[in-house]
């Protein structure tokens, strides 16, 4: 079995559901409808949790595993919402040689999630990114667009505390 | 229907041997016609045709580079092609392909359930892999998925050929398993990486018999049987399903389709079972109950079409995907469960022993039978109808480790009274067999006359869906037979839409019926792709039936006796309490 998927409570609204159902009704009889359905569903909800994929499966008759297989194959799809605070660690070459990999690992450990996931309380999501053009400050990360440079693992608690 | 175009031939040479093949034939099939055996690994005809593994590569003067022979249809453009399958470049490429597969494979042949009949192992040997760790590097490690009642998935031994996915999707139409993630991180699993036991898997085991390696295997329950046999308190009864006699021999190197009924009976005796009975008795009993139920539904206006309920994978499928239609299922327990229920009631009372001390073992072609024994439907509260259900493969394993030289065994016979059966029961093991057996009894009951010809050839054969109309005592009875759940779906959609024209439907979960069940001996894909294993196995059952004097369930003397002594008549109150069951609505997961 794969990595343990941390569940973030689903907060979909009735309005989003109506939008989803209408969208599926309009698309489901076309060939190759799954990709556009998943893209639009992600536009509606921001991500594709089990609740949304199950609704898609029920409406289209496509087995849930098929939908999940596609959703995990293409990197454009996310199974997790973005957190209130979005952390992005640069794994570009310059940052990586200066130890951003360690920073990234440390953050996963502290937040208890994998890259690409969101903490169950919805506060933080964590992603890796390519070079953001701040190599002079390597290793760097951003939180909600704010840049933190010359990072070491022991600075992380202090930084995260500002966003609690 | 064959189109005119496909009848046109294209002439090619395979390793110098000329062959004229119909246009559209794959190079793989054309080579087979020329007597050339090209190795395949991911290709399983009709189940998985994806061209992923690159093991079947060949050269052709009409194609550039090496091409995958399993996916290359010959066209008029290939006229005159010289195809080579064994050049040094090809042999080297196959060896490298295998070495690369091994680089991420947990190589534990010595303790692997498939050692000796693993397709990967066989190919490595044939193509001269001499260093299994040549390309070793990082390898994903997977936890075993043991959540399902019937089987284990060990992705450490999975080579991502997707044959299991094809079985679940293309044959059964379920799509419970598939490839998750991409690239190096990809693996075969269920939606949201749930364990198989948390999904709507119907336990058919078709994925297991599709798998070339030790990644998928049934849960082995033989130790429980050995413990019961060793326990002096227990009376241990065995009942093999009809199809086991037609397949068990394969495990000991006998040709596919050898009937080993007599040797099997002796093997049971030597294993130490106290009573060697036969699920065929349960099958005859099923026919008595089911034909009475059908006649009653027709005469009193019950839910029609009535659908057979012998196949537990099918039953769970109906409960899950057509929960509103479960009223169409016959309330008869399956032959395995009827038989078990009889051992814990009638037989226990006859011997005057506590049913708790009777241990009943089913030997089944089917992994879903492991699920069926856990269903809440016991005849005696707190006592399971059947204690353990094992597959043909597990029985063979037991026989081997108990020092029994199977092929040298003398023929033995079953014990009385629950070992007596008719030809109608033995054909239960093949698609159409339950229908035919039921018709043999129902027609005689309804007309009051003796059938001149007991064969109902219309419901024999391996079409996914078969239909026939019979005029019985002035009434038209329209019947249908389906095997494989993708075919069952067609009939169920008709019922759901209210357009089903049938009175009686037989459904078996596995394509071809029990002879091709998920618990049957594994057959190498390189054989399966060219030989109809189902037909060979079915022939053994039809021959067994034809050789019997008694070929109708209601003529079985032990069946007559059990009604005289115990159940009074089919469908009686007592029969309902012991031999019938109810169904539950399930949701799709
Ligand atoms: S799957 Fe085949 S190659 Fe792998 S360990 Fe088992 S027997 Fe050996
Ligand atoms: S046992 Fe049958 S239903 Fe379950 S995963 Fe395998 S093929 Fe699919
Ligand atoms: S589990 Fe078996 S059949 Fe399925 S992909 Fe892996 S090796 Fe192939
Ligand atoms: S590509 Fe032909 S057998 Fe795999």
Summarize the structure.
The complex is a heterodimer of chains A (164) and B (589). With 164 residues, chain A is an alpha+beta fold.
Read across the widest sheet of chain B, the strand sequence of neighbours is 2-1-5-3-4
Provide the spatial order of strands within the biggest beta sheet of chain A. Answer: 2-1-3-4
- Look at the structure and give the mean pLDDT of chain A: 91
Largest beta sheet of chain B, briefly?
5 strands, mixed
Indicate the low-confidence ranges of chain B by residue numbers: none
**Would you report the number of β strands of chain A?**
4
Q: Could you say what the CATH topology of the largest domain in chain B is called?
A: Rossmann fold
Largest interface: A-B, 20 and 25 residues
| CATH domain class name of the largest domain in chain A | Alpha Beta
What small molecules does the structure contain?
A: iron/sulfur cluster, FE2/S2 (inorganic) cluster
Content of β-strand of chain A: 5-15%
Structural class of chain B: alpha/beta
Can you walk through the features of this model?
The complex is a heterodimer of chains A (164) and B (589). Chain A contains 7 helices and 4 strands. In chain A, a hairpin with a 2-residue loop joins strand 3 (141-143) and strand 4. Chain A has 2 domains: 2-73; 85-161, Glutaredoxin. Chain A has 164 residues and is an alpha+beta fold. With 589 residues, chain B is of the alpha/beta class. Chain B folds into 3 domains: 9-86, Ubiquitin-like (UB roll) (Roll); 96-218, Alpha-Beta Plaits (2-Layer Sandwich); 223-579, Rossmann fold. Chain B has 21 helices and 17 strands. Chain B has a 5-stranded mixed β-sheet, with helices on both faces. In chain B, strands 11-10-13-14 form a 4-stranded parallel β-sheet, sandwiched between helices. In chain B, a hairpin with a 6-residue loop joins strand 7 (178-180) and strand 8. Residues 40-43, 51-56, 68, 70 of chain B line the site of FE2/S2 (inorganic) cluster (FES).
């Amino acid at each position: 079995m794969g990595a343990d998927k941390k569940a973030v409570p689903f907060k979909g609204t009735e309005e989003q559901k109506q939008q989803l159902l209408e969208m599926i009704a309009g698309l489901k009889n076309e060939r190759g409808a799954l990709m556009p359905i998943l893209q639009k569903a992600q536009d509606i909800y921001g991500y594709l949790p089990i609740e949304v994929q199950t609704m898609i499966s029920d409406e289209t008759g496509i087995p849930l595993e098929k939908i999940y297989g596609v959703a995990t194959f293409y990197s454009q799809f996310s199974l997790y919402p973005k957190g209130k605070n979005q952390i992005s660690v640069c794994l570009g070459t310059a940052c990586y040689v200066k130890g951003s990999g360690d920073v990234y690992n440390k953050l996963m450990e502290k937040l208890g999630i994998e890259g690409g996931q969101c903490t169950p309380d919805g506060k933080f999501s964590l992603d890796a990114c390519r070079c953001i053009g701040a190599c002079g400050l390597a290793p760097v990360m951003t939180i909600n667009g704010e840049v933190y440079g010359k990072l070491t693992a022991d600075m992380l608690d202090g930084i995260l505390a500002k966003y609690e | 229907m064959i189109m005119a175009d496909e009848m046109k031939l294209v002439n090619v040479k395979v390793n110098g041997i000329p062959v004229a093949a119909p246009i559209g034939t794959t190079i793989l099939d054309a080579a087979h016609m020329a007597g050339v055996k090209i190795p395949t690994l991911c290709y399983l005809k009709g189940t998985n045709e994806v061209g992923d593994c690159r093991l079947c590569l060949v050269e052709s003067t009409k194609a550039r580079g090496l091409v995958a022979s399993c996916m290359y249809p010959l066209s008029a453009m290939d006229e005159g092609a010289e195809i080579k399958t064994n050049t040094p470049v090809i042999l080297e490429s196959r060896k490298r392909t295998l070495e690369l597969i091994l680089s991420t494979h947990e190589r534990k042949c010595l303790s692997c359930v498939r050692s000796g009949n693993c397709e990967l192992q066989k190919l490595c040997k044939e193509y001269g892999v001499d260093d299994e760790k040549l390309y070793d590097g990082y390898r994903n490690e997977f936890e075993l998925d043991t959540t399902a009642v019937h089987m284990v998935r060990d992705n450490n031994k999975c080579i991502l050929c997707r044959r299991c996915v094809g079985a679940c999707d293309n044959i059964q139409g379920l799509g419970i398993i598939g490839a998750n993630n991409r690239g190096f991180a990809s693996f075969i699993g269920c939606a949201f990486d749930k364990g198989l036991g948390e999904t709507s898997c119907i336990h058919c085991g078709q994925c297991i018999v599709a798998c070339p390696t030790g990644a998928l295997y049934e849960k082995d329950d033989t130790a429980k049987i050995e413990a019961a046999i060793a326990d002096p308190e227990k009376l241990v009864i065995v009942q093999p399903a009809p199809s086991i006699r037609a397949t068990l021999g394969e495990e000991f190197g006998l040709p596919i389709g050898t009937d080993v009924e007599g040797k099997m009976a002796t093997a049971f005796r030597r294993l130490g079972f106290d009573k060697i009975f036969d699920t065929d008795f349960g099958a005859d009993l099923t026919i008595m109950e089911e034909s009475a139920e059908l006649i009653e539904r027709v005469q009193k206006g019950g839910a029609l079409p009535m659908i057979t309920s012998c196949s537990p994978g099918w039953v769970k499928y109906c409960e899950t995907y057509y929960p509103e239609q479960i009223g169409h299922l016959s309330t008869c327990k399956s032959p395995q469960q009827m038989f078990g229920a009889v051992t814990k009631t009638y037989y226990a009372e006859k011997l005057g022993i506590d049913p708790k001390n009777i241990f009943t073992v089913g030997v089944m072609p089917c992994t879903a039978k492991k699920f069926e024994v856990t269903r809440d439907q016991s005849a005696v509260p707190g006592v399971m109808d059947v204690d353990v259900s094992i597959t043909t493969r597990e029985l063979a394993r037991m026989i081997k480790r108990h020092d029994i030289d199977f092929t040298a065994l003398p023929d033995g016979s079953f014990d009385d009274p629950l070992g007596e059966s008719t030809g109608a029961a033995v054909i239960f093991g093949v698609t159409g067999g339950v229908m035919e057996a039921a018709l043999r009894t129902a027609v005689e009951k309804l007309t009051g006359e003796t059938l001149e010809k007991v064969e109902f050839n219309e419901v024999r054969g391996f079409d996914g869906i078969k239909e026939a109309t019979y005029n019985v005592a002035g009434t038209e009875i329209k019947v249908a037979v389906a095997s494989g759940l993708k075919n069952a779906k067609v009939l169920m959609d008709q019922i759901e839409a209210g357009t089903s024209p049938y009175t009686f439907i037989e459904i078996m979960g596995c394509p071809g019926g029990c002879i091709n069940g998920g618990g049957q001996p594994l057959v190498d894909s390189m054989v399966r792709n060219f030989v109809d294993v189902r037909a060979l196995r079915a022939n053994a059952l039809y021959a067994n039936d034809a050789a019997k004097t008694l070929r109708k369930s209601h003529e079985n003397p032990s069946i007559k006796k059990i009604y005289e002594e115990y159940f009074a008549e089919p469908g009686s109150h007592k029969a309902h309490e012991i031999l019938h069951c109810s169904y539950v609505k399930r949701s799709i997961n």
